[in-house]
Amino acid sequence: MNAWLIAVLRFLAALGLMLFNGVVMIYMLRKVLARLHVRLGPMDNGPHGMFQTVFDVLKLLTKEDVTPRAVDKALFFLAPVIVFVPSLMAYMVLPFSRTWVILDVPYGLLFYFAVMSVVPLGILAAGWASNNKWSFIGAMRIVGQQVTYEVPMLLAALPVVMMAGSMSLSDIVRAQSGTFLWILPRWFAFNVPALVLFFIAGLIESGQTPFDLAEAESELVAGFSTEYSAMKFGLLYLAEFSNVFLFSALTVTLFFGGWQVPWVSADHVQWVAPIVFMVKTYIGIFFIFAIRGTLPRIRVDQMLATGWKVLLPAALAWVMVTGFVIKVGQALVGPR
Amino acid sequence: MTVARGVLERAAVAASIETVESLGAVCRVSSSDARKALVALRDSDLAVGFLVDLFGIDTGEAVDIVYHLRSFARDEELVVKVEHGYGSTLESVWDIFPAALMPERETAELFGLELAGHPNPKRLLTTDGCPPYLRKSLVVRSAEEVRDRASQHVDATSLDRTAGSLAGGFAEPGVAEPGASLDATPIPAPKPLPVPRGLKRAPSGVDIENSDRLVLNMGPQHPSTHGVLRLILELDGEEIVSGEAVIGYLHRGIEKLAESRRYSAVGTLLDRGDYVSGIHAELAFALATEKIAGIEVPRRANYLRCLLGELNRIASHITWYGPMGLDSGAMGPFLYTFRDRETILDILEDITGQRMMFNYVRPGGVVNDITTTAEAKIRAFLDEFAVHVDENDELLMGNEIFQARTQGIGVFDRETALGFGLTGACLRGSGVDWDIRRDRPYAAYDELEFDVPVAEEGDVYARCAVRLEEMRQSARMIRQCIEGLPEGEHTAKVAKVLRPPAGEAYGAVESPRGELGVHLVSDGTDSPYRMRYRPPALYALQAGEAMLPGLLIADAVVLMGSMDLILGEVDR
Amino acid sequence: MPYDRIILLVFVVLGAAFVVVTLTTSWLLSPKKPSAEKAETYECGVEPVGPPWVQFRAGYYVYALLFVIFDIETVFLYPWALVYGARGWFIFAEMIVFVVILVAGLAYAWKEGALSWR
Amino acid sequence: MALDKLTGEHSAIFIRSEQLFDVARRKSLWYMAFGIACCAIEGLMHASGPKFDFDRMGVFFRASPRQADVMIVAGTVNWKMASTVRRLYDEMPEPKWVVAMGACACSGGPFREYPNVVMGVDKVVPVDVYIPGCPPRPESVQYGFITLMDKIKAQTGERLAAARHDGR
What's D32's DSSP letter? Predict the structure, then answer.
């Protein structure tokens, strides 16, 4: 088949997945938060309010799109694109099963990090272009967020690369097949400090509580998206949820065996693999949302201090410890 | 009284002193001697260090400015009255009592006086062009006239769009030298307090365009200003360089309208002043009225007042605790506590017939007796609440992020807290052990057993901790009230249309926000001549305002949250 | 053109196109009542004073300088990590040296007070 | 150019598509978090709380007026506040609705005699639904929202009637 056609079809699949995730996750967020908070959440629109998000999207689509006079018009329109496209591109390298990868490249992990580091740029553009003080402060905070999370996140993913010996996400998933200590699945999640560090850095990356500083409803009204209305706001919101999905999916890929089912050979999970992957990812999302419903927000200087004085030294130390343990392991049982 | 006379004589201030039973010693000094007299009273062995309230009374010929002072050392109340002619100059006393900052502005504006020597002499509550509402010459309109106004059509475009904005009416603040132009006597301040001088720099024209400072409006519509508080912050990065609180967006003349209401109907207005703890405001008014009219309240009514008051206190603290969580970014506490608030409101509704605006405590007693269903509900609630309050304590107060956000933020030491007129949990959070329920017992509080929680740190966290403990103590008192509820009438025999004799009285209660006082002047008719509502939240607000410089935006939000502001009460 | 270039191109172009199409649809379907008041900047319901585009003092300025250095150095660790399992103890020693240099830099910055919000 | 400009305001396609969108609009009414006074406790805080939970109906709050559909005027509006209320209303994108909650927002309530108080917020912004009460219970606010939903639903009929009237 024509490579262009394949590319377009795969683009549509990724887009469809992203939209599906957006709709499902917003509903899920409202439901999870409601249940955590002794409420019911959406109930009336559709069975258990399932169509709530559909109505929300349709309403946003038919809402007037206000462009305030003072905004930088070009950037104001461009910002949703800059936020949306990288978020969509990151779907390319996620392995949904052994063969379901849009772009299976040996540098998948780096590609993901590279693409996702563009997102804050879009948010910065959105906040700056709005010419609104709340948006502007939110935009400046997102830069602080990027300064905080990126180095610890790269370092926290390093032990995984060392153990798998590859930066291809498919290879990393494959390296987590089988078991160790007779019973435990060979998940890198058992490298617990790496997982914890990665998870905290990822919370900062995706701007979730306690690090939701750029949106910070009680401080900055609606943060960077204060001036955005109708579908432009919808797209920014969608991209935000997409980032949460991506972060959860990457955590599953790096630490929880990706699409694999523990104790079952990869040959037997061909068709259920994407489902397994999605289920694992949504469990991760549930945790992120549960944290969102529970914790207060950290202050911006405390976030930077946490990133540089706790996460970074800890991640550096853990890289060394992992390296040492791997070498000792190799010395004891020989190279894998 | 004799001590005060001696002090004033030594200071060479001519004063007439009388003792009003329901008020304390009342000194009358001339307006030129007022500052001298206040300094003398503060620095003498009377140690009158606390300005309870500052307000005016229009006597018909002139305006009496009333300085209500308190000496914690001698546990005495002292009222200084100064007569000012209409339109004359009111000399600021903020350098003697910083607590006077906002009340002075309000008084000057509502009585049409000039304010001199004040660091920020702008209007506080109303916009430019409003008449001095509290003058007696301005009569509240009759129903017919009001109907005319109701049918008036207002063109939306004619609204002054710059009204209340910075551009309109921002005077060059200028640092007012304490008393420099007014009085040659240098005034030694006991301790330098952080003085709010409004915005340091007047943002006007060219200046602001080329500045690297942001001037940010926080409010009136902002998710975390709890109503319509507006903070103007001058920011350097995220750090606040200077800040000013702008209020008056909910000013609706409770004090003025009370002058046209019967005694039994004033509660309707007071409920809507402090709208989350109506019982307390009603109670303060009832206490003042009873003092003037000499009404003896039955014991059962006193117990019911305590019972409802403490229930209301928990409900009020919940509306502080939940939003405090929201301010710091945690959604959980808000929704968990509102579960309890619903139960309390159910109980209150059962007894009083309303969820929020009770008008339940009236002069002479209370309106309804407690119902049997309510009693059962209260018992069930207390059992449940004991668990919930511990949960909430862990959920927010035990959270490391919350602790990091609140400890060491917005610290008031003892002197600052007293200087700014803080009362209630804010004062106790700064280590001052003062609770009107225990130290000036009213209703049945002298028969109840309770502890007064005090914290020494004076930061946001300390205030939170004090309030949480107060909720536990309230639950304890409610149980005592329910167990020991005496038999008898729930109200004294009071005339339908109450006409207390001419007189003056001050009734104060410990509301959830602090000392809620009603200073009542009666002229023998069926409605008050003047009703002053001492708003604890106003004093808390000006203290919070003074603390803003140096904080980050996020800190400002939790600081204002911890002051427990109810804007209905601040603006009245 | 190889597949990976094609797919990148498709994602960038069509992704942007999707945004444009969505916004156009929204523009087509939504009611419009522009007014001067509607186009004013929101600031909690009052007239804003002064522009937000000021020289904003970012409290994390020094962090950001450090970030540039550390971000690049961290990426240098990745090629090393790739071949880590395949080599002997020497590679571990190499990493120790590299990481210790990083840590020393961090410690120095910390000591000098660079890791603070100001 | 929007759809009604293309096809005309009375075209069947415009009216029917609006009918479809009105379904979404009334099932997803986001209100602006804007509490003025006492009513805000009942109408905004308790309404989103555990017992009443307006989220069930898709009624949800957003802090920015740019993303809100409904403005609940919950409390007394005085002349100092009036310009802010109007400004916030102006900044909301179409279609937008205003709910006047409580006696004060409807008419000035117990404070109507005070000259500084606006006697009903309808002097300043057009009001769609009035909710009486001082303060109205959250149930009343819920009923107010249901009334608003009915009002949105009835728009199609009004448009059809207008089309018939003009066609004649």
Answer: E
Nearest chain A Cα distance for residue B402, angstroms: 6
- Which residues in chain B are closer than 8 Å to D42, comparing Cβ atoms? 355-356
In contact, B435 and B510? CB cutoff 8 Å: yes
Q: Which domain holds residue D48?
A: 29-154
Q: Is B155 exposed, middle or buried (0-12, 13-18, 19+ CB in 10 A)?
A: exposed
How many folded domains does chain D comprise? 1
| Residue in B224, B325, B339 closest to A219 by CB | B224
CATH number at residue D145: 3.40.50.12280
**Three-class DSSP category at B551:** coil
In a domain, residue C116? The reply is no
Residue D40 is assigned to a structural domain of this protein? yes
The predicted-structure confidence for B531-544, as pLDDT tens digits, reads as follows 888 889 889 888 88
pLDDT tens string C11-41: 889 889 999 998 888 888 888 888 888 888 8
How close are the terminal C-alpha atoms of chain A, in Å? 39
DSSP state string for B214-240? EEEEE-SS-TTSTTT-EEEEEEETTEE
Please tell me whether the peptide bond between B220 and the residue prior to it is cis, using omega within 30 degrees of 0. Answer: yes
Count of structural domains, chain C: 1
Report whether pLDDT(A84) > 50.
Answer: yes
Instruction: Provide the number of CB pairs (under 8 Å) joining chain A to chain B.
Output: 79
Average pLDDT (A101-129) is 87
Residues 6+ apart with CB under 8 A from A174: A266
Tell me, yes or no, whether D139 lies in a domain: yes
Determine contact: B324 vs chain D, CB below 8 A: no
**D126 at C interface, C-beta within 8 A:** no
Question: Per residue in B452-470, pLDDT tens?
Answer: 888 888 888 998 889 989 9
- Report how far residue D119's alpha carbon sits from residue D110's, in angstroms, rounded to the nearest whole number: 10
Q: Is the pTM of this model over 0.90?
A: no
Domain that holds residue C92: 3-111
Does B131 score more than 70 pLDDT?
Answer: yes
Is the domain spanning B254-319+357-370+410-549+561-571 CATH 1.20.120.790? The answer is no
* Residues B549, B232 contacting (CB under 8 angstroms): no
In a domain, D2, yes or no: no
Rg of chain A over Cα atoms, rounded to whole angstroms, equals 21
Domain B2-136: which CATH number of 3.90.1300.10, 3.30.460.80, 3.30.70.560, 3.40.50.720: 3.30.460.80
Query: B154 pLDDT band (50/70/90 cuts)?
Result: low
Q: Residue D76 pLDDT more than 50?
A: yes
Sequence-distant (6+) residues with CB within 8 A of A164 are: A171, A172, A175, A176, A188
Interface predicted TM-score of the whole assembly (ipTM), two decimals:
0.85
B249–D83 C-beta distance less than 8 A: no
pLDDT in tens, A149-200: 888 998 898 888 888 888 888 888 888 887 777 788 888 878 889 999 999 9
Q: Domain-by-domain residue ranges, chain A?
A: 7-333
Asked if the structure places residue D149 within a domain, the reply is: yes
CB-CB under 8 Å, C32 with D3: no
Chain D residues with CB inside 8 Å of B166's CB? none
